[in-house]
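Problem 12. The chain below contains 298 residues. Write out its predicted structure in token notation.
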Amino acid sequence: MTTIIPKVRKSAPKSDTPSRVRRGGGVMSSTGLYIATGVAALLFLIPFYILVRNALSTDAEITGETWKFFPTDIQWGNISELFGDETVPFAQTLWNSAVVATLHTVGVLLVCSLAGYGLARIPYKHANKVFYAVLGTLMVPTAVTFVPSFVLVSSLGWVDTYRGLIIPGLFSGFTCFLFRQYFLGFPKELEEAARMDGLGYWGAYWRVVVPNSLNFFAAMATITFIAGWNAFLWPLVIGQDPSSWTVQVALSSYMTNQTVVFHMIFMATAISILPLVFVFLFLQRWLVQGIAQTGIKG
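Solution.
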């Protein structure tokens, strides 16, 4: 009986060409990504370059027919002219904006986080109805409530005061919605363990939920601070005296029907965005994480 031994066919050596192609394709795609990112960053920085360039120029150079990459004679005196203007107390407006934006941010975070936590965690048969009512406020145009709010603030004597600038905007339906959606995804086990230790809803919120939600709070603080700093229409109506102006109202004073002081507008704008840049750079690491944790579901 003969035994047939099958022949083993030797496989051809694998070529490393595909891996090289893949590796080459990866390098090319990475290079293209870096180029696209660099172009996008350059386009993003162009407005800031124009802002700084015009802030250090004269009105003649800003409105001139020929464009120069940078002013021939840098006008550092524009800074002292801006802060030395007696008609517009720019330093005071910066302070007013800082106070209003900071207190507005703290108040909105406190009020809206408590409202969102109550809607997400406290068992109440009408909780969904209250939540839908809050969402309904997002559909009401600001112009509808503007006049009644001003009449109320004026009757309370809060015109030209921090109270009139801050208190009417302490609640935000959208921020409340975001907090509720976030707390719906917060681990209930941590709160149950806190209740076993004798904490109520307030204790669980303050000692457990808030310390473990700092990323989201930081993201909401960034968005709220920027919105409070850039607010214009309400401070324009409430801050009737120059001593109670915010920085956005001060910027509008350099552009009237008769004259437009270009170098003052650009210099004031360049200085006014510096606090926003610092806040964003300090909190940017938490901004994307906090928005991603909203979990628009539930």
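Discussion. The chain has a mean pLDDT of 84. Students who got a different answer should revisit the alignment rule from Section 12.3.
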